Amino acid sequence: MNNLHDLFLGKPLGDSFMELLLFSSFALHLLFVLLMLGTAMIAVFFFIHSWLTGYSFELRWDKRVLRVHLALKSLAVVLGVAPLLIIQVLWSIPLLSAAAILAPYWLGLTGLMIFAFLSLDTLGHKMDVHPLRHMIFGVLGLAALLAIPAVFSAVLTLVENPDKWATVSAKGLGAEPGLVFHWLMRYLHILGAAALFGGAFHYFFSTKGAEDRHYHLSNWMVAATLFQVVIGVLLLVSVLGRLTPQVIGAVTVGVAAAMLLLGLAFYQNSEAKHARIGVTLMLLPIILVSMLLARQFLQHQAVAPVQAALADRASQLNSKLSPFKETSFNQFRSHLATVYDNGETIYANSCAFCHGIEGNGDGSEAAGLIIPPEKLNAVRADRQYAYQLILKGVPGSGMPYFSVFDRGKLESLLDYLEQQFHLTARSQPSDHPKDEAAAQQAFARICAKCHGDRGQVSGFGRNLQPAPPDLSRYGLTPEYAFAVITGGYNGTVMQPFNELPEAARWGLVSLIASFRTTQ
Amino acid sequence: MLFPVFYIPGLGQGMAIALVAVTHVVLSHGFAIGAVSLIVLLEHMAVLRNDHELEGLAQHMLKPAVVIITAVGAVTGAGIWFTVSVLAPAGIGSLLRVFFWPWFIEWIAFTLEVLILLPYYFLWDRMRPANQGWHVALGWSYVAVALVSAFLISGILGFMLTPDGWVQNQQLVSAFFNPTFWPQLALRFFGGLALGALFCLAFLLFSRQASQSLRQRVVRLCGGWLLIAGGLCALATWIYFQRVPQTYFTHSLFAVLTSHLAQKPWLLWLGNLVAVLLIAAAGATALMRRRLAAKLLIIPALVMAIGLVAEFERTREFIRGPYLMPGYMYANQINLSQNLYLRKSGFLANAAWYQAQPSHLWPRDPAGHALFASNCGVCHTIGGLNDIRDRLRGRTQTSVNLLINNTSRMVPFMPPFSGTEAEARTLGAYLYALIGQKRSLEAVPPAVWSEAGHE
Fold first, then answer.
1. ipTM computed for the complex
2. How is B117-171 classified by DSSP, letter by letter?
3. For chain B, first and last CA: distance in Å?
4. Contact B93 A8 (CB under 8 A)
5. Which of B85, B111, B327 lies nearest to residue A79, judging by beta carbons?
6. Could you say which of A88, A325, A368 has the minimum Cβ distance to residue B93?
7. pLDDT beyond 60 at B448
8. Cβ pair B63, B112 in contact under 8 A
9. Which residues of chain A make contact with B399, given a CB cutoff of 8 A?
10. B9 phi-psi bin (left φ>0, alpha ψ -120 to 50, beta other)
């Protein structure tokens, strides 16, 4: 007996350890994301700058900057796998719900990434394209690249605001202006951080021996830090109601470090240059970690209760499921043992619930149909016609089409029907007294309207739903044919003809049998 | 039931996942495993023979490979995850819990791959000639780590078709080393090598890099490599399908041909034969230095090879039929035991998201649409691929109700309906009304969460 439990209730590690793992892997991922975004911003910005100022293309610095993009982006992507894995297990319900609410954007991520990476990496490798083309691909690639954190920050914003899920899924983000404001600030804060970190990275790694580049990048970093201060204040305002001592503490450390960094930038003393570099390199990780910690505290506080409540709900549901586990397991076993590759199995499973295991048209579900299923053991049809009926179904009746089975399976089903119900045999003549003249007259006057002169379905008949069968290819045993003529076929245009004399009805039975032209 | 259902109009969820997945498989196998192995081999040969021209060619071939691997290959890998987490949240959430540690190790392997590939690519010039041996070693270690990641993912993918003992014991080891694990690993590895040879051939045959005679030599090598790897891949595929339970295997013909072509089964054999012959011919002409013939054959052969990849992945995903995780979860992300419970207690009463939705968004029939999206939407669309209206066209109302209750019996790869008898009738009425609508009439309102995205 299996003891399958709801997998959603299990976790590979304790929650606090998972959170630690999430925090550290995300910090690593974010670092490279910021460097990648910053690199692309700087490369495109300074390309346009050098183009507008008539800078020599041979000496273009943005080539060197953009070349690093390939490496940074590869690391950013691959390092993102761990946080994605961990958050989907730790906060699975909030994350997967928020992603589904913003599904069109979330699904667009793949396309955005491919476009952005291909554009920027190609430019990083092929630098001698025409400046206009470079400009177009650079700007479009950068725009796609910058759209990626917009989606992620929107999803995370939603993750942290479970009380807004219903409204957002019904009316869109726009229905929650507070949420949009928070998301926008959060997004801009990421862009600002990217500008700052990217600037610092290139200040140290790709400006060797070029004082003017140092100068440009210093300005760039100061601007980025000032931008961060403004956006940071607005971001804090957007979460004002949620600030806890932990969050305030983490933010304070981050802000202090950022102020120090800003102070250093204005402290222009070339002799202390090395010390300045060292302090900057220390301050940046402090800023990143403390700000990220503040975010993690906020996230935990918003999400943990939701996850717990939903997990509780799942666990209650799970206890209700236990009575069904054995049955479901047995069903699975029997499904594994049932191979739909032979007529007998296919008939027993796909046909018998209507047509009955004996082919009497009395399967377990037959009573629910307005038009009763055919009594297969009374059918005498040519094989090709029967194949077409099974393949295409009978429109207007309950008989569906079975093109879900390949040719081999349908042939095997026909073999089974042949053996079991003599479906393709010729119907034997009956020895009941019959009035053939009356039958011919009745057929021409009444039946031919739908069945055609020789049973081959009239134009009128073909438009019926369901249409009558082609009697030149499809027949019934005499007894059953007599029963249908006498009692009609329920739910179809075939009405009871019990007012015809019995001998005339038997005459019709043999007349119809004579229409069969095929084996 | 825990998550909102995102219903993709036109394409359906399965097809959306398949598109991303096949792209990823072609690139990750073909470039990350296949092409890079060949390039490292070429470099190794160049170092052994002190052949600078060959080395230059290998280096030249690496550039597009690295761009494609990092910009498209890796991203589509993450893309499968993005797609699946929206389209099958309960499925991926469950799988992640079974395979958390393999996936975590997989992450380490991915990171190592990048950490090796980047210096291999960027430091090629700088390591020459003093540290060339180390550079080659770097290349081979990349190939080794790429194999490790193929090893890990094969366990997870194999589990989704043949979980075997896991259904009873829930042991990670049984789940991972399932019956199709080894053949699948072999077929992915050799398939990757063969694809890589095809990509390299296409590149070399149309490239003007290096001298003609050198290119000829490398083309010859790729041709031989293609024939051997392709042959081994075919062998592994054969063994793989031997290990697939008959219940599933019997649907493989339909998986490929679908209801449009399943009455002409010979098409499958013909198609595969043509594909294999074309690929083999491309390999043979390359081996025999028939440059013009190889040039003519290589693009069709590449297209056919990508077709075979799609065919294999489609078959593997399709034949497990009603299940997403056999023995645990149906394709529509409803657990096997949940299904029985929901028949008694009702689907809508237990669907977290349905209750949260304001009903004015599905003016016609919110309950019917929710039941359709959750029960059927994974495979069927309204007005797109596998259109439910085509599937039910011509049926009477009573028979639609009856079919809903008998899906899994009638069609062995359909999951059973999850919901009460009354809900089955609600869905039946909704679907019956749909059949009556003309295609050109306004589309059925999309699920509320997809509307959210458009505003």
1. 0.89
2. HHHHHHTHHHHTTTTHHHHHHHHHHHHHHHHHHHHHHHHHHHHTT--TTHHHH--
3. 25
4. yes
5. B111
6. A88
7. no
8. no
9. 369, 397-400
10. beta
CB < 8 Å from B in window 126-185 of A: 165-166, 168-174
Question: In 3-state terms, what secondary structure has residue A381?
Answer: strand
Q: What is the pLDDT of residues A309-335, one digit of tens each?
A: 877 877 787 788 888 988 999 999 999
- Each residue of A69-110: pLDDT tens digit? 999 999 999 999 999 999 999 998 889 989 988 988 999 999
Strand, coil or helix: A371: coil
pLDDT confidence bin for A290, thresholds 50/70/90: very high
B402 and A354 within 8 Å at the Cβ level: the answer is: yes
pLDDT in the model for residue B359: 43
Give the contacts of A428 (CB within 8 A, at least 6 positions apart).
A477, A478
DSSP of A77-88, one letter per residue? HHHHHHHHHHHH
Contact residues for A506 (Cβ-Cβ < 8 A; gap 6+) = A430, A432, A433, A434, A435, A439, A478, A482
Query: CB-based contact (8 Å) between A73 and chain B?
Result: yes
Q: What is the pLDDT of residues A343-395, one digit of tens each?
A: 999 999 999 999 999 999 999 999 989 999 999 999 999 999 999 999 999 99
Backbone phi and psi for residue B381, each to the nearest 5 degrees, phi listed first: -120, 175
Enter the DSSP assignment of A259: H
- With CB atoms and an 8 Å threshold, state whether A320 touches B403: no
Cβ A346 vs Cβ B250: under 8 Å: no
A266 CB-near residues (< 8 Å, 6+ apart): A222
Is it true that the peptide bond before A429 is cis, omega within 30 degrees of 0? no
Asked if A311 has any chain B CB less than 8 Å from its own CB, the reply is no
CA A418 to chain centre: 44
Cβ distance of B452 and A82 shorter than 8 Å: no
Cβ contact B121:B62 at 8 Å? yes
Report the distance separating Cα A495 and Cα A73, nearest Å. 75
Contact A313 B352 (CB under 8 A): yes
- Residue identified by tokens 């102020």 is A259
By three-state DSSP, how is residue B387 classified? Answer: strand
Which residue is closest to A465 within chain B, CA to CA? B394
Instruction: Give the residue from chain B lying closest to A101, CA to CA.
Output: B449
CA–CA dist B325, B92 (Å, integer): 10
**What pLDDT was estimated at residue A467?**
92
* CA separation for the pair A176, A163 (Å, rounded): 11
Determine if the peptide bond prior to A466 is cis (ω within 30°).
yes
Q: Of how many residues is chain A composed?
A: 519
Of A128-132, A167-171, A481-485, B439-443, the least confident: B439-443
Q: How confident is the model over A184-209, as pLDDT tens digits?
A: 999 999 999 999 999 989 888 776 66
For residue A357 the two structure tokens come to 């295991």
Q: Which of A101, A331, A346 to mutate to test the interface with B (most CBs of B within 10 A)?
A: A101
Q: Is B338's Cβ below 8 Å from some Cβ in A?
A: yes
Please list every residue in chain A whose beta carbon sits closer than 8 Å to the beta carbon of residue B2: 8, 93, 97, 310, 314
Distance from CA of A279 to the nearest CA of B (A): 28
Q: What angle do CA B66, B67, B69 make, to 5 degrees?
A: 60
**What is the mean pLDDT of the segment spanning B235-240?**
97
Alpha carbons B420 and B321: distance in angstroms, whole number: 23
Q: Does A117 touch chain B (CB under 8 A)?
A: yes
- Give me the total of CB pairs closer than 8 Å, taking one residue from chain A and one from chain B: 304
Residue B152 has pLDDT above 60, yes or no: yes
Q: Which residues contact B124 (CB under 8 A, 6 or more apart)?
A: B59, B62, B135
- Residue that has been written with the tokens 């038997």 in this structure: A506
The residue behind tokens 């059973």 is B416
CA distance A354 to A321: 31
